[in-house]
Automatic annotation (TrEMBL), chain B:
NCBIfam families the UniProt entry points to: 2A0309
Biological classification of the source: Bacteria, Bacillati, Bacillota, Bacilli, Bacillales
Any single Pfam family the record assigns to this protein: Spore_permease
Record's keyword annotation contains Membrane: yes
Segments traversing the membrane: 20-36, 48-65, 99-121, 133-150, 162-181, 201-222, 234-257, 285-307, 319-339, 351-372
Subcellular localization(s) per the UniProt record: Membrane
Assigned protein family: Belongs to the amino acid-polyamine-organocation (APC) superfamily. Spore germination protein (SGP) (TC 2.A.3.9) family.
Protein name stated in the entry: Spore germination protein
């Protein structure tokens, strides 16, 4: 009796205790979750500071090599890719030294041939009789590298290792030699995939910032070309460079871009997209306010117009700021091919822009609200095609559009050779089957096909995405109010576009504010001979592209600018 | 991220073309639907001369109003009319004197907005959206317009500027119809009109040009007042030409007897335009939708000016504009749906045309007084927010 009672109470006690514990734990968890975002940020910051400020902070270099090596090894958590080579410099007196670098970030060949070999072998062979200081000798003659710096602080040494440089400690000296040996494997220079042209350079920017810079420099041999380097991202420490032409770019715009870049405070930057979202004028706009390009020639052309390019290490996409609406519909090829075809192609792009934006909406409006506007012969055909379709036209259009979007998304993810096949199977087989099954009308298939193809006629992908998104609200408003809804949608869209700015430049320039002198490079692309001025809406300091009006000069400048 | 302050001063400045577009789009409202009928009703085939002469008279009005605004650069009528009327020692008295005018102007704008929207909604119901309730179309229209009305002046001006070329599309279609179906005989005989009737016709017809009064407020936001106001004068010949074309094309197709029986000859004419080259059949819904641009900008301009006026009279901060826009929204909606039918709407229009003369007359009177009393505004102030301006000018006086 007594035993069972005790056991019973004990059981209850434990159960209750367990429950209380659970509750307490849950409450703890909840409070933790509430403050999580704040706390997390704080913790991250704290840890980072601990690591680099408190631990390394103002710490100088030890005189003892062993101690330096040990310190860095512990700091990096005995990383597997940290290569430590301790050796002796064959010089009187024999001196201990250590070389540290990260494998595959620093060039192994350079380290062996131009750092290790001279220090280990040549020092003993050629410099036996000189009575120079070891450090000085190493700095002046032995270490054979173009980029060589001496630092006094441990922080600099750690940074250098993480950057891909090699550091060299010599026993007895409280300083470190930082040898520029960055040399990682890169993808070869390839053709830009999203912006291929028939005529024009085939090379695209590289993932390595310096290669990209080189490509731009090669095309623009102007001493006024300025490159400002920033390091953004507390943890990634990504190199970001700001490129512009001094004397061409408007200083106010430059200042604004610099300010906005310096204000970025994030732990990592992996692509220019991060920077774009941080520095754009309006976050909620569906329209891209900065252009991106993979083409070095396009970057140079934009620089010459007084714009600013932003390159980020690790991605081949350069950002162009500021950007106006029309420039997303220009291809670099417009300037390389003859101006007739460029003008014609721009017209085609304008038409395709409207088709991809409005065609489904117009279809819905015509079919459900204004059938009298469809030519009567076609109307009969369309009515007979729609006779079996059980849905209203808005549902029909939405279904088709969404399935096309799914096809699009799927064909990107599918492995290379299958992608196009699925596209064809999806478009042809499913489309045809859907029509014969009476799910959609044949006209709808044409509309959807045209819309999708038209959206690919746009030279820049990010502008095409915005149109792709805006199509759906327009379709819905067409479903509710017919053409009236479409028009109201368009006017509101225009209102948005008109108030949009990119780095302070009106987005709809040069149409509004209207400036007829800039019309030479809009819908119509004039011959280079006559495009003697840079676009005035970017307010370039030097507005002239061509100084003198002589024929020879014109042609020369035209050739250079393209 | 903060809003950019970069760029340059020319961005916020109003170009002469922008002010041209603003006045042009404000005049070109719902009047264009009835214009050929009104002209034919009052003058038969001589309507064209009525359009020309009333266009000329309207030009004189525009000139006077522009002169008045020019005397007080970068200030709106809310700030300068009290100064003109009141004694310089007691500015409060001037404010009291001019207050009835401001109230009249406010209600005038409010009713103009409501009638414009109602006219469009009625025609939309007849021609395009037959089964959609008129309350819904009116609601969505005012709702969209409110977004345009609450923006900053320069954004609205830019929108006007961008849309000007699109208003010419219907004109091209009308011309096409006239070439297809028009007959010169329909336009004759001319010069049959009695001079007494002529004067009366002009008095009725001049209401079609309504809309330029809002420059009294909007001119305060122009940077280069002289140039902008000159461009106002260019609007009048241009718009007279458009009205003339609209009338002549309608007249040539329908003739003076048929035209008065059609509710909206302009749209009826679009119905007549048929060609396999145009891809679409029966263009009237399409043309009507393009006319939506006119209505949208006209009403947005009126609405915007009304909001600015209220903000300035009560010296609200700049932020209040959005609130006032949404407060006015139900009032405008109620006014627009209040009327039972088009007959009542026409009675409103009669009242509005009389008010229009009072407003213009008062403004011209102000100009005369300003000239006599040699009142001129100081252009030195930077106008960011007109409410600030009033205080400053009062401090000076």
């Amino acid at each position: 009796m007594f035993d069972t009672d005790v056991i019973f109470f004990c059981c209850i006690f434990f159960l209750v205790q367990g429950q209380i514990k659970n509750v307490v734990m849950r409450m703890k968890n909840r409070s933790f979750r509430l403050n999580r975002s704040k706390k997390k940020k704080k913790i991250l910051e704290k840890r980072y500071e601990e690591k680099l400020e408190n631990k390394v902070g103002n710490l100088g270099i030890y005189a003892d090599v062993e101690e330096n090596v040990k310190y860095i090894e512990t700091l990096l958590g005995k990383a597997g890719d940290l290569k430590i080579r301790q050796f002796t410099i064959q010089y009187k007196p024999e001196t201990k030294a250590a070389m540290l670098y990260l494998d595959e970030l620093a060039s192994r060949d350079a380290n062996q041939d131009f750092v290790l070999r001279p220090l280990m072998t040549y020092s003993g062979l050629f410099y036996k009789d000189t009575k120079k200081d070891v450090w000085e000798l190493a700095y002046e003659s032995l270490v054979q590298a173009g980029e060589l710096k001496v630092e006094q602080e441990m922080k600099e040494a750690v940074d250098a290792i993480l950057r891909g440089d090699t550091v060299l400690f010599i026993n007895g000296y409280e300083k470190v030699m930082v040898i520029g040996t960055c040399g990682w494997k890169t993808r070869g220079i390839g053709e830009p995939r999203a912006e291929s042209v028939v005529r024009g350079p085939r090379e695209g920017l590289s993932e390595t910032l310096l290669f990209s810079l080189g490509m731009i420099r090669r095309r623009l041999k102007d001493p006024d070309l300025r490159v400002k380097m920033y390091s953004i991202g507390k943890r990634t420490k990504t190199s970001v460079s700001l490129i512009y032409l001094e004397g061409v770019v408007q200083p106010d715009i430059l200042k604004e871009v610099k300010n906005r870049i310096q204000r970025i405070d994030i732990d990592g930057v992996l692509e220019t997209g991060y920077i774009e979202e941080f520095i754009q004028d309006q976050t909620w706009s569906p329209f891209p306010q900065l252009q991106n390009t993979e083409r070095p020639d396009a970057v140079v052309a934009h620089l010459l117009e007084g714009k600013i390019a932003i390159l980020v290490d690790g991605t081949p996409h350069a950002l162009i700021a500021p950007a106006v609406f029309t420039q997303f519909y220009y291809s670099p090829e417009d300037y390389y091919e003859r101006f007739h075809i460029a003008t014609f192609l721009r017209l085609i792009r304008l038409v395709s822009f409207f088709i991809s934006l409005m065609l489904p909406a117009l279809y819905i409006a015509f079919v459900s609200y204004h059938p009298e506007m469809i030519p009567s012969k076609l109307q009969f055909k369309m009515a007979s095609g729609r006779a079996t379709v059980p849905f209203p036209s808005i549902i029909e259009a939405l279904l088709m559009e969404i399935s096309v979007e799914i096809l699009r998304e799927a064909s990107i993810r599918l492995p290379g050779p299958i992608g196009p096949t699925i596209g064809i199977v999806g478009a042809l087989v499913i489309g045809d089957a859907a029509v014969s099954a009476g799910l959609v009308s044949p006209a709808m298939v044409i509309v959807v096909g045209l819309t999708t193809i038209s959206s690919y006629a746009n030279p820049s992908y990010n502008a095409a995405i915005s149109v792709r998104l805006l199509r759906f609200p327009l379709m819905i408003s067409a479903g509710i109010f017919g053409l009236y809804g479409v028009m109201l949608g368009l006017v509101l869209l225009l209102l948005h576009l008109v108030q949009l700015r990119s780095m302070g430049i009106p987005y709809m320039a040069p149409y509004t504010p209207l400036n007829t002198s800039d019309f030479k490079d809009t819908l119509v692309r004039m011959p280079w001979k006559w495009m003697d001025k840079r676009p005035s809406f970017f307010h370039p300091k030097d507005s002239q592209r061509q100084e003198e009006k002589s024929e020879a000069q014109d042609q020369k400048n035209g050739g250079e600018a393209s | 991220m903060n809003k950019p302050e970069s760029g340059n001063s020319s961005q916020s400045g109003v170009t002469p073309y922008e002010s041209f577009a603003f006045i042009y789009m404000s005049i070109l409202g719902s009047g264009i639907f009835f214009l050929p009928r009104t002209a034919a009703e009052v003058a038969g085939p001589d309507g064209f001369w009525v359009i020309l002469v009333s266009g000329f008279i309207a030009t004189i009005f525009v000139y006077c109003l522009s002169k008045l605004c020019q005397r007080f650069p970068r200030r709106t009528c809310i700030s300068f009319i009290p100064e003109i009327l009141g004694p310089s020692r007691n500015p409060q008295f001037g404010r009291i004197l001019s207050f009835p005018f401001f109230i009249l102007l406010g209600f005038y704008l409010l009713f103009l907005i409501a009638t414009n929207i109602r006219i469009f909604a009625e025609i939309l119901k007849i021609e395009a959206l037959k089964r959609t309730p008129i309350e819904a179309t009116i609601f969505i229209l005012i709702f969209s317009i409110a977004f345009a009305a609450k923006t900053k002046p320069y954004i609205l001006l830019k929108m006007n500027e961008f849309l000007v070329p699109f208003t010419l599309i219907p004109i091209v279609i009308l011309l096409f119809a006239a070439f297809q179906n028009g007959e010169i005989l329909n336009m004759l005989p001319m010069f049959q009109m009695n001079l007494n009737f002529f004067g009366n016709a002009i008095f009725i017809f001049i209401y079609v040009f309504v809309g330029y009064e809002i420059m009294l407020i909007m001119a305060g936001y122009y940077q280069n007042t002289d140039k902008s106001l000159k461009s106002h004068l260019w609007v009048m010949p241009f718009i007279t030409m458009i009205f003339g074309i609209t009338f002549l094309t309608s007249l040539s197709v329908f003739g003076p007897y048929e035209i008065v029986k059609i509710m909206s000859p302009t749209l009826e004419l679009a119905k007549e335009t048929r060609s396999p080259m145009l891809i679409l059949e029966r263009l009237e819904a399409g043309v009507l939708i393009i006319f939506l641009i006119n209505i949208f900008t006209t009403v947005a301009n009126f609405y915007h000016v009304l909001v600015r006026m209220i903000t300035e009279i009560y010296r609200f901060p700049e932020k209040a504009n959005t609130t006032i826009t949404w407060i006015l929204f139900p009032i405008v909606y109620a006014l627009a749906v209040y009327l039972k039918n088009i007959q009542e709407l026409e009675r409103w229009i009669d009242w509005l045309s009389i008010t229009h003369f009072i407003v213009i007359g008062f403004a011209i009177l102000c100009l005369v007084i300003a000239v006599i009393r040699k009142k001129k505004g100081s252009p030195a102030h930077e106008l960011d927010h007109p409410g600030k301006k009033v205080q400053e000018s009062e401090d000076v006086s």
